[in-house]
Amino acid sequence: EVQVVESGGALVQPGRSLRLSCAASGFTFNDYAMHWVRQAPGKGLEWVSGISWNSGSIGYADSVKGRFTISRDNAKNSLYLQMNTLRAEDTALYYCAKTARDGGDYYGMDVWGQGTTVTVSS
Amino acid sequence: IQLTQSPSSLSASVGDRVTITCRASQGISNYLAWYQQKPGKAPNLLIYAASTLQSGVPSRFSGSGSGTDFTLTISSLQPEDFATYYCQQLNSYPYTFGQGTKLEIK
User: Is A74 strand, coil or helix?
Assistant: First the structure.
């Protein structure tokens, strides 16, 4: 079964750091770009960051640029999101998502995890 | 690139034909995907490349458009289609989603 499973969400204070992980299985992880998408409570989807299969192309939303870092370890079939200087507005459910086909993001994101919750509050 | 969906919400009945529009602030060719999200669930990919139906998605869903204007059409609403729909541009980073269209039962 093709799946991705997020972990690492927690309640953290403003200004602190957190690292999210996404474990992939059932597909050849190193063939696919991967993404993080978040959803604040009661709000819409917000694309956070994406990384190509070989980490050669990386992008960030303006709202997290300079604070968040995406990375992947193809040997471990894992995707990560290092979140620094967290703010209250980063509170959300964070999804890991797989690009639908190898070779690029053109085909959308076809496999999503169940999400991991990050709450930033004092 | 900003994406603006309309309407933000829509009430319709089973069997109705509905259309949701997504407008991009600049041209994105056909680098657009549509997703359906039900409460408490992750999004589900419906359409990619503006008009190509993802495998397993019912044929009552269709997409069209290119450049800046796109539409998602559901030809005959079924009870399971009441959900929130999002468009997403995949033309260039940062990828962005529309604000969503909530489709409710009339």
Answer: helix
Interface of A with B in 47-66 (CB under 8 A): 47, 50, 59-62
Residue A2 contacts B where some CB pair is shorter than 8 Å: no
Give residue-wise pLDDT tens across range B58-88. Answer: 999 999 999 999 999 999 999 999 999 999 9
Per-residue pLDDT reduced to its tens digit, B12-64: 999 999 999 999 999 999 999 999 999 999 999 999 999 999 999 999 999 99
Nearest CA in chain A to B31: A106
Give chain A's mean pLDDT: 97
Rounded to an integer, the average pLDDT of A23-29 is: 97
- Phi–psi pair at A92, nearest 5 degrees: -175, 170
Residue B24 neighbours by CB distance under 10 Å: 23
